[in-house]
Every structure is written in structure tokens, then in C-alpha cells.
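Bench notes, afternoon.
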Amino acid sequence: MNYLLNIDEAIDRKFLVTKAMKGQADIGTIIHVMDAEQQGQAVIVYYRVTRYNEKFHDYQDYTAKFENLAAFCKWAQPDNFIARNYECFSIRDIQHYIKIKNRNFASFCLPIILVAAIIIWIVALFVVKGVVGIVMGAVLTLVVIVGAFSLLKMQKKKEKMRLYRKVSAGWGVVFE
């Protein structure tokens, strides 16, 4: 999934790392792209990783080379919500958010639909039999498709709301 038309759009932006790069950035880390250049198809990115601690902030600069822009976009995604509120979340929260955010119809819904459809059609054709079995199988298969897609949407919304609640937990007005 490409988020950028060219690598120059990445300069001076923050990205959420979705795949670990050994010795540099872990999954769930926010990086700040300081500079980038294109050499043919290859992309070279100069970025900074900020590690937050209770007592201090640690900055480390790195350089990474990717075979193309799509490889960079697969490694890091722009995510302003996480970048703005990074200190409010644990690394586990961010990794769970990435896992839920990266789910799509093919990776999440399709396996559920296939397993359910096989079970439904076995029951419909061998237990119920006849026209009633075929109609029941078709209707239940459509119900499973709608249910799986709704589950995907609901999980993404629920995860985002959970993180919003964490960010806004300290907000409020005190009346005396």
C-alpha cells in the first residue's frame, strides 16, 4: 500500500514503524524522517528514532535503504494520531493498534467466511438436504459474510475508541 507519490513527501514527517528493522526501529516506534533521496528505484531515508523514558528522551539517527518507495511505505506508515499522543501509549498498545489497523477483508474476513461456509454447506447439503438445504446454505453464507465484515469494522472502531479514551482520560473540568 503506497501512501506517498515520491520520497520527498516523507521529509519532515513522522511515521509509525509497522515492521521491525533489526538494530534500528522496533514495531510501534515513531520515526521522524529528516531527509531522503532517490537513487534509481532505491530509496535512502535518513531518520531519527526518539525513545521516551520517564527521566529523559533519547534520540538516535539512522539511515536505511529500501529497494523502492513501496518497501518504505510497507515498513513505515504515516499516523498522526499515534505520533501526537505517543507518550500516552505503551508499546504493546501501539503494536495491538497496528495489528488491528492492518487487518483487511482478505486477511481477516476471508478465512472466517471460508471456514463458516464449508461448515454451513456440509450441514445444508448432507443434513437438511433438498431445496430447503440449498436456500438455508445460501442465506446463512450471506449472513456470515455480512457478520465478518461488520466484525472487522467494529474491531477497528473499538480499538481507535479505546486509544482515544486513554488519551482523554486526564481531560475534564473540575467544579468547586
